[in-house]
Amino acid sequence: LLMHPLCISPFSIHKSPHLVGSLSSLSFTSRLYNKSEGDDDDDAPVISGDWREFRNSLRTTLMDSEEEEDTTPVATPWSSYIDSPNTQKLLTQSPTLHAEYVSLLSSPSNPTYVVGEPELCGALARLPLTASVWFHGREHLKQEKRRKLLDPKAEPRKHDDDLYDEAVSRVNSMLFPSSSSSDTTNKDMDDETKQIVSAAVKNTNVWYKATESIINNRLNALAIKAVDSSGNIESASLDEKDRSFLNRYVKSNEEWEELSVIVSHNGEGLKTEKSESVALTINRPLSVGISDSLTKLILQGSFASKDSDSKKSENDKDQEYLESLYTEDFQQKFRDAFGKEGVAYVGGPDMQHLPAILIHGQRDLPGSTELAPGSGIFTGGMEAAVDSVLAKESSPSDYKFFVGRKIFAPGFLESYCRTGTYAPLHIPRPIVLRQCISLPKPLFHEVLGQCGGEMGEISKIEIL
Fold first, then answer.
1. With helix as H, strand as E and coil as C, how does the chain read?
2. Which of 5-19, 101-115, 141-155 has the least mean pLDDT?
């Protein structure tokens, strides 16, 4: 079952002493699983309908199977978030989303978890550089183990990130300060030392502290080497290695603790010209209240001026179309609906000149489209949204406007996730749809804390 092409990426099964028994005793009665009599048992089962519903059903069934022997109610770690300040804040924003969220947090399976690959309507957590370095290194080791199994005579390939090798050496020097130096590399360790270091680096606090120390040392060295008396960096003083490190560090800071939702992936969701992956950052609010200028940006974008002497461009034609669609009268209606309480977000650095993307959870809103079957996350329906708010059938807080987006060329997002730049997550719908305004706890840490495990530990270290 787990090798089915529809299942291999989305599934994330946690290790459990009951896992083998649970899988063998599962009764697949879901309407999503269809198997005809006479089918070969070696054939992959066919899953029709919403595979997300199937995955959640499977995870719940696994949890229930493990708890059959003891029916005593046990408080789960994620149920503690029912009374968290952020959840109570959600109650004031949207009682409907709050009720849905509490129901999910009360379930036997965690609604927030890491998945194997990025998926449409899933989330991306931008990991700090410290974690990215370590996760990238671990991915390299996994690839080398697979190569060794396929070809025992294969020559080992050097990892392309020297920060990871330095971090492993730093763990060694932390454990054996009298017998190792900062120049010690992994290949210089004897077998016993390697085993001790290997066990130690499984502790998040250990590898995090070691990698953070390496990054700080690099920054200090750059400051001595390339910063002039005015505090500016002299780029001529930097070699390729220094520039590469500095670019990674700056990029990590620019995207610090971003949490995004994937709205286009593998040709599904929002339509793109080249089948890119597109994500919207949900924890970067731009404005509470929509001004006149922001109204024009949301509805019409910021295309090149038609007053230019240059030849009429495609942008000019697009501008004319939007102006005919969203007239001054409609813009006034939009301001009446969202002017005081509407919330706009910076969705990302790309395509900020285009009209905003509207995201909401209103299933019956005319003109809207569900991004992925069963996700309950919709886009479009601008005119109906305005009418609905003005008729008090919905609230301005039910809608989110995203200026800009994050665009990944085909295959790049998967690569970023494998190398630890992003952690692909499944998160509850209310997290995507809620307004990220004045939250008692940053949404990034709320989500990683709910994930638990290594993600939860990274959050604890980062938030201190």
1. CCCCCCCCCCCCCCCCCCHHHHHHHCCCCCCCEECCCCCCCCCCCEECCCHHHHHHHHHHHHHHHHCCCCCCCCCCHHHHHHHCHHHHHHHHHCHHHHHHHHHHHCCCCCCCEECCCCCCCCEEEECCHHHHHHHHHHHHHHHHHHHHHHCCCCCCCCCCCHHHHHHHHHHHHHHCCCCCCCCCCHHHCCHHHHHHHHHHCCCHHHHHHHHHHHHHHHHHHHHHHHECCCCCECHHHCCHHHHHHHHHHHHHHHCCCCEEEEEEECCEECCCCCCCEEEEECCCEEEECCCHHHHHHHHHCCCCCCCCCCCCCHHHHHHHHHHHHCCHHHHHHHHHHHCCCCEEEECCCECCCCCCEEEECCCCCCCEEECCCCCCCEEECHHHHHHHHHCCCCCHHHEEEEECEEEECCCHHHHHHHCCCEEEEECCHHHHHCCCCCCCCCHHHHHHHHHCHHHHHHHHHHHC
2. 5-19
The type of residue at 201 is V
Q: For residue 16, which phi and psi values (nearest 5 degrees)?
A: -155, 140
Q: How far apart are the first and last CA of the chain?
A: 42
Give the span between the Cα atoms of 217 and 211, in whole angstroms.
10
Q: pLDDT of 146-174, one tens digit each? A: 888 888 888 888 777 888 888 877 877 77
Mean pLDDT of 118-146: 89
**342: its two tokens:** 């509407």
Residue 5: other Cβ atoms inside 10 A: 8
Q: Identify whether the C-beta of residue 368 lies closer than 8 Å to the C-beta of residue 382.
A: no
pLDDT at 274: 80
Cα 19 vs. chain centroid, distance in angstroms? 27
Reported confidence tier of residue 58, pLDDT bands at 50, 70, 90 = low
Calpha distance 363→372 (Å, rounded): 12
pLDDT in tens, 286-296: 999 999 999 99
Q: Which of the four pLDDT bands, split at 50, 70 and 90, describes residue 76?
A: confident
pLDDT in tens, 308-345: 444 445 556 666 666 677 889 999 999 999 999 999 99
Phi/psi of residue 115, nearest 5 degrees:
-115, 165
196-214 tens-digit pLDDT: 656 665 678 888 888 898 9
- Output the six-digit token pair for 157: 């390939």
